[in-house]
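COURSE: Structural Biology Practicum
ASSIGNMENT: Worksheet 4, Part C
STUDENT ID: 0417
INSTRUCTIONS: Below are two proteins. For each, the amino acid sequence is given first, followed by its structure token string. Answer the questions at the end about the second protein only.

PROTEIN I
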Amino acid sequence: MDHIDEEAGQAAALAEQDARFAPVRDLLGGGREVSTAGQLAAVTTALPAETPVHIDTALLSEHGVEPAEGWVPRIAARSDFEVRGDEAVPAVELSVCLVPGAGAPLPEKTWPVDPYERALHQLAEANLRGFFAAARQVLEGLAGDLGEASGYLRSGGDVHAEVLQESEALRAVAGRLATLAGRAVADAESED
């Protein structure tokens, strides 16, 4: 009998949580543009006054898509949550998302534009393939930056040569990450 009571209690708790989240989820769906004060006011006045608001500091774009020249920023309000004690409470997250043009809709699924932010995002989602791909992009970017920095040094000098050597070392590590990524994903999947 205790097992049935426990299941009924869990079902009631889930129904109560769903009811708390419904106003935010129903209003925002997959995301709602709030690029004007009127749009932001419409969102905030439609929600309970105690609804927390979060700011996502990462610049976002559609998941899996690298933004191109001419993409424009849009401010989006999305459904989120906040943990208070042992309880999740509904919240609103404001973020900036790049879209292909002025009339383009907000994407349903996003990811950070910056490779380092993307690596952290992918790791938090336990997406090892995505994490390694973004980490490789970070290392390749640093290698290129070191190569560029060497242009400010005396050509042919010891420091110039060492900086170029470190740039190549980072490129080599980035290349090894590509190989390691496949092995890491296979290893993680073998544990499931």
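PROTEIN II
(use this one for the questions)
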Amino acid sequence: MENTLEQHLFFSSGLDFGLFSLLIMTISLSKILFSNNRKNIDVIFFLLSIFCIFISLTRNVYIVSLFTLITVILFYLHKLHYKYFYKYLPLIYLSLIVIALIFINPILHILKSSFLFNSSSTLMRFKEWSDFFSKYILNGNITNVLFGYGLIQNSRFDLTKNIIIDNIYLSFILYEGLFGLIFYLISYFSIYKYLLKCALKNKNYFEISIISIMSSYLIRGFFNITVFGDYMNFILIFLILLINKNISFNNKTKVEVLS
């Protein structure tokens, strides 16, 4: 049953299907809460997307969806105030996940839960991360640690078929080094900061939905390598940047003409 449900139409995995469903869920909910033009179809899309997230059978998607929903609700309850609080949401969420793994996972291991709450895969990842950290960072060449080994997680090649990381941060260190990881984080927070500014300024449900998804972006890469796995979000972010830059340019042009 699990293998059957994970083969979803045009999606290569339950993760991709779940992340796309997350996008639909967030936009639908944001429109219901923030738009004056809400319709019954939005509620239907929201409920269907919740169902699709469930059948993705992916814990990573469940966790990311939960924190994304929290962000949308926080925006709604606080009426888009507390800018500095939203600014640090990604780090708050990531810290909560780390704390949860430290304290909750041993309990699940003792209970020997099964299916979605089985902790064996998480414990296996911990071992892989520990081995990676010891081999490539603690005992690695300082130049490679800073600039990368040029290796990626890919089962198609003999050189990389045994590299199993499933963590975006460690994968950046392996491929591009600490400098590559720092550049990635700087780029992420720069985009997040600008999108947050747009959402607070325009109070548009579409922009609120995207910033809500971005607030949980650091979490989705904690158990999977998802930089380029969610193309739709990158397209929508680009559209928001393009639209806001165009509006800013037009407003500046009008001011210059009036003056």
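ANSWER KEY EXCERPT:
Q1: The first helix runs from residue 2 to 5.
Q2: Confidence is low (pLDDT under 50) at residues 247-259.
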